[in-house]
Amino acid sequence: MSCRIFIFIYLFTLGAFAAQRPNIILVMADDQGWGDTGYNEHPFVKTPNLDEMSRQGLRFDRFYAAAPVCSPTRGSVLTGRNPNRIKILDHGHYMRPQEETLAEALKRGGYVTGHFGKWHIGSVQKESPVCPGNSGFDEWISAPNYFDIDPYLSDKGIARQYKGESSALVVDWTLNFIKKHADGDKPMFAVVWFAAPHSPHKSLLPEKNMYKGKKGRGYFQEITALDRAFGRLRAGLRKHGIRDNTLLWYCSDNGGLMKESSGGRNKKGSIYEGGLRVPAIIEWPAKIKPAVSALPSFTSDMLPTLLEVAGVKRENAYPLDGVSLLPVMYGRAQKRTKGMGFWRQDVMGQSTFSDKIVKEMMKAQAAGRSPAIPERLKKDIEEFPQHSLSKLPGHAAWLQWPWKLHKIQRKGVEVFELYNLEEDSMEAKDLSASQPERLSKMKAMILQWQQSVVNSLNGKDYK
After folding, report:
1. In this structure, is residue 407 part of a structural domain?
2. What gap in Å lies between CA 376 and CA 391, rounded to an integer?
3. Are residues 253 and 401 in the same domain?
4. Is residue 432 part of a domain?
5. Do residue 444 and residue 328 come from a single domain?
6. Phi, psi at residue 309, to the nearest 5°?
7. 78 and 186 share a domain?
8. Do 189 and 296 reside in the same domain of the chain?
9. How many domains does the chain contain in total?
10. What is the pLDDT of residues 227-261, one digit of tens each?
């Protein structure tokens, strides 16, 4: 076989493979709880588009955020790792630039990439090593944190004000991206991170009396507004003829604001079920049949799943916390063998006032100052303070279905709680005293995992 013929066959095969790979769109709500959807039988909130997707796609009934607050979970999506490994210890902390993100990997694999909406894991200044542009995204209109009406965002580093409601705007930008690239020769990867239903809930619906008199009225109005915008996104996939071969994945970044519908004990901010359990659905008509999965899974599973879908290999061997869910998507997996770890350390979050920051960028850019806000380019991402392998503060949990072990350390006092989630989804009956052998075994598991996380946090992976 001549060299020219071989090259032609190779390029033809590569092109055919690229044509078969799906577009990938990841959509994430901000603070929507597991029970805050119609399909999960909320008593009044209306989410017809999510309800339709839940019937037509793969619905996960036991899906978790990797953390009970927003920034850490977002870091888990892009790295497949527990957020403590990458130094996102709480909201407002930046991820480390040494990580290869999902966007970087897919871009290397031939995808065109876009980020639209909330960022909150780095700066939105183009000079920052952890802005969307330097984290693998070709196109981006991104906010430092949540945003509501007529918000200020960064368009590839240029600060601008946009007119409109947050959820509608995010979908507008995403649809523009889809229209631009739908007929191109590259598959698309878009990250669509809504700012709703995060407080202060200014994005009210045109129907002024919807949910009037209901507790959390503004919160639930924002969920319905988000659902309407999401419906436009799904309709846009049909309009541009790419719905069948687009993998659309919807979830939330942490538990909701209402204990009553959180799907478990407590709510946002907690390592108990109500702070971690979130709605999640995957739709990929060409490959996935409608189904409901009770398999425990979480946001750290997204990177290994999507890289396998796209046929892209990781460039590093850093420890992953997630596993590929492709067998689940194809209806083959029945049991998860790898445990799932959660850990919120005793670390303060960092305030990030989105409009204020982008307005400051706008003023600096008008005056010709660059970078606009130097102190927000990197924060402390170049620092590697060494954390102890024996002092492991805060609240951690290890889930080995159906058992969930809590390890709570406050001021040197360590407490363990053990629950059987299959029989006690509200984590009301502590079984640690009646299950000494299981307790001992799971103590060893969580200690080994936490020490692995600390090694990553201390920078050992990068050496």
Report:
1. yes
2. 30
3. no
4. yes
5. no
6. -60, -40
7. yes
8. yes
9. 2
10. 999 999 999 999 999 999 999 999 999 999 999 99
Read off the amino acid at residue 113. T
Boundary of a domain, candidates 307, 338, 369: 338
Q: Give the range among 13-17, 330-334, 349-353 with minimum mean pLDDT.
A: 13-17
Structure tokens at 391: 């002092």
Instruction: Give pLDDT tens digits for 12-53.
Output: 333 444 458 999 999 999 999 999 999 999 999 999 999 999
Match 């001992």 to its residue by tokens: 440
User: Contact, 64 vs 74, CB < 8 A?
Assistant: no
Let me know if residue 249 belongs to a domain: yes
Domain that includes residue 450, residue range: 384-462
Q: Give the 3-state secondary structure of the chain.
A: CCHHHHHHHHHHHHHHHHHHCCEEEEEEECCCCCCCCCCCCCCCCCCHHHHHHHHHCEEEEEEECCCCCHHHHHHHHHHCCCHHHHCCCCCCCCCCCCCCCHHHHHHHCCCEEEEEEECCCCCCCCCCCCCHHHHCCCEEEEECCCCCCCCEEEECCEEEECCCCHHHHHHHHHHHHHHHHCCCCCCEEEEEECCCCCCCCCCCCCCCCCCCCCCCHHHHHHHHHHHHHHHHHHHHHHHCCCCCCEEEEEEECCCCCCHHHCCCCCCCCCCCHHHHEEEEEEECCCCCCCEEECCCEEHHHHHHHHHHHHCCCCCCCCCCCCCCCHHHHCCCCCCCCCCEEEEECCCCCCCCCHHHHHHHHHHHHHCCCCCCCHHHCCCCCCCCCCCCCCCCCEEEEEEECCEEEEEEEECCEEEEEEEECCCCCCCCCCCCCCCHHHHHHHHHHHHHHHHHHHHHHCCHHHC
198 contact partners, CB below 8 Å, separation of at least 6: 30, 31, 70, 146, 222
For residue range 189-207, what is the model confidence (pLDDT) as tens digits? Answer: 999 999 999 999 987 788 8
Closest CA to 117 of 230, 258, 219, 234: 230
Mean pLDDT of the chain: 94
pLDDT tens, 252-269? 999 999 999 999 999 999
Mean pLDDT of all residues in 141-168: 96
